[in-house]
Every structure is written in structure tokens, then in C-alpha cells.
Amino acid sequence: MRDVVFLIQDVVFLIQDVVFLMRDVVFLMRDVVFLMRDVVFLMRDAVFLIV
């Protein structure tokens, strides 16, 4: 019975780690999206300057 409890605890910790990882990935992706948007704006400005 104690083994089962430990197993469940391990699974819960694992799930928590995965959730934290996914959250980090989401934040990272959001940063990348913002960066790409900035790059697009910059490129558009550069095109206006060239033209």
C-alpha cells in the first residue's frame, strides 16, 4: 500500500514538472512571437526607408 502511495506521489511530481515545463514553453513562444512581430515592423520600416 505504501508503495502505491509513493508511486502516486512520483506521478504527481512528474505531472507538476511537465506543467511547469509547458508553461515555460508557452512563455518562450510568446516571447518569440513578440520578437518576430518586432522584426516584421523593423523590416517594414526599412522597406519604407529604402523606397
Shape: rod-shaped
Structural class: mainly alpha
- Multimeric state of these chains? single chain
Q: List the uncertain runs.
A: none
Which whole number gives the mean pLDDT? 95
Number of helices: 1
Measured distance between first and last alpha carbons: 75 Å
Which percent band covers the strand fraction? under 5%
Calculate Rg over CA atoms: 22 Å
Number of E-state strands: 0
Helix fraction by DSSP (H/I, runs of at least 4): over 70%
| Biggest sheet statistics | none
Key traits:
single chain, mainly alpha, 1 helix, 96% helix
Describe the structure.
- The chain has 51 residues and is mainly α.
- It has a domain at 24-51.
- The chain is built from one helix and no strands.
Give me the secondary-structure topology:
Blueprint (H helix, E strand, L loop, with lengths): L1 H49 L1
